[in-house]
C-alpha cells in the first residue's frame, strides 16, 4: 500500500493529537508500528531496539545494494500547551508537536510506503528516533549500538520543517546548517527566611536576577561579534509564596554556537560569571553544562552537492539556499559518525517553531515525500 496524500494527512493529524515527551513516545511508537505493519512486508525488516524501546528501525532491502542509505525522523514533542484551536489539537495536556515532528514522521511514512511497494536498488534504513528535543536520542542510539550489521547506514539524511519557507520548498547549504547547543542547569542555593528579615536570609531571587543580567553580557561583550552565539534562559523557578525569601532558584537554559570552539568559549565564560556571583552574594551557584549529542549539524560537502544539484534541477521542487540557523539538532551527532545531509522542508506558517500556535501547511507533506523520494532514487543510480 502506497499511502495517498489524504491518508498521510489523516496520519499526521492523528500523530498531532498524541504528542509525547522524550523517551516516553510509547503511544506514538505503537501507532507508527500499526501503520508500518499495514505496508507490504516483502522487502521490510523491522527492529525494535530493546535498549531504546520507543525507537523503530525499518530496513527496506535493496534489489542490488551498493550501500545502505539512512533516513531519520524524530518522533518526540515539547512541553507546550497548544493554542491552535485546531479540531485535531493535542489530546495530551501541556504537550504539543510544536516543532513539527508529526510532519517529519509522516513524510518518513510516505517514503517508506513508496519503497515498500517499489523495491529500492540500495538498502534503505528508516530510523524513527526518540528524544530529539532533549535527552539526545541520536547519541543514545549510536552509543547503545543500535546501528549494527545491516542496520548500519553508509550515509544518513534527515529533514526539519521550516515555517519561514514556502510549503514543500527544500532549503539546504553545504557546511554548517544548525548550531551546536549546550544545555545549562544552574542551581542557586542561599538561605530562605521571613520576608520581613532579609538580614537573616540569603535571597537567591536577587542573586539570580543579577546572574541572569550578567549572563546577557557574555554574548554582547565577551565574544567576537563577527562570530555567532546565543544564550537563552527559558526557565526560572524560585520561591513558594510572596512573604518567604526563596532559598533556592533553578535556572535552565541553552547555549548555541555555530562552531564547537564558540560553544566552549561561551561555556567557559558562563563558568566565570557563576563563580563571580557565588562570591559576591556569598551563596552556592552550581552550574551543570551538558552538550549531550547536540553537536553542530555539519553537512557532508560531497553528498550535499549531489543533494542540492538534484533539488535545483528538479522543476517540481522549489529549492532555496538557506543560511545557518541557531536551532540545535542531535542529528549533528549522527552526521559526525556517518556522512550525510540535513535539510529544511518548508511548511509555510506565521508561527515559529516551538510556538503554541504552530500550524504547518499540510501541502508540504506530499511535496516533501516527492522531493526526497526523487532524490533517493537518483542517489541510487550513482
Ligand atoms: C530544531 C529544534 O528546535 N531543536 C531543538 C533542540 C534542542 C537542543 C537542546 N535540548 C537544547 O535545548 O540545548 C532546539 O531547541 O533548537
UniProtKB/TrEMBL annotation:
Q: Name one GO molecular function term.
A: N-acetyldiaminopimelate deacetylase activity
Catalysed reaction equations from the record: N-acetyl-(2S,6S)-2,6-diaminopimelate + H2O = (2S,6S)-2,6-diaminopimelate + acetate
Q: In which pathway does it act?
A: Amino-acid biosynthesis; L-lysine biosynthesis via DAP pathway; LL-2,6-diaminopimelate from (S)-tetrahydrodipicolinate (acetylase route): step 3/3
Q: Locate the Peptidase M20 dimerisation domain: which residues?
A: 180-279
**What top-tier enzyme class does this entry carry?**
hydrolase
Q: Which GO terms describe its biological process?
A: diaminopimelate biosynthetic process; lysine biosynthetic process via diaminopimelate
* Record's cofactor remark: The Mn(2+) ion enhances activity.
Q: What EC identifiers does the entry list? A: 3.5.1.47
Cite the active-site annotation: 74, 133 (proton acceptor)
Residue numbers binding Mn(2+)? 99, 101, 133, 160, 354
Q: Name one Pfam family in it.
A: Peptidase_M20
Query: Gene3D superfamilies, alphabetically?
Result: 3.30.70.360, Zn peptidases
**Hydrolase in keyword set:** yes
UniProt keywords, alphabetically: Amino-acid biosynthesis, Diaminopimelate biosynthesis, Hydrolase, Lysine biosynthesis, Manganese, Metal-binding
Q: Per the entry, which co-factors are needed?
A: Mn(2+)
**Which PANTHER family does the record match to this protein?**
N-ACETYLDIAMINOPIMELATE DEACETYLASE (PTHR11014:SF98), PEPTIDASE M20 FAMILY MEMBER (PTHR11014)
| Annotated HAMAP family | DapEL (MF_01692)
Family assignment from sequence similarity: Belongs to the peptidase M20A family. N-acetyldiaminopimelate deacetylase subfamily.
Q: What does the protein in this record do? A: Catalyzes the conversion of N-acetyl-diaminopimelate to diaminopimelate and acetate.
Name by which UniProt lists this protein:
N-acetyldiaminopimelate deacetylase
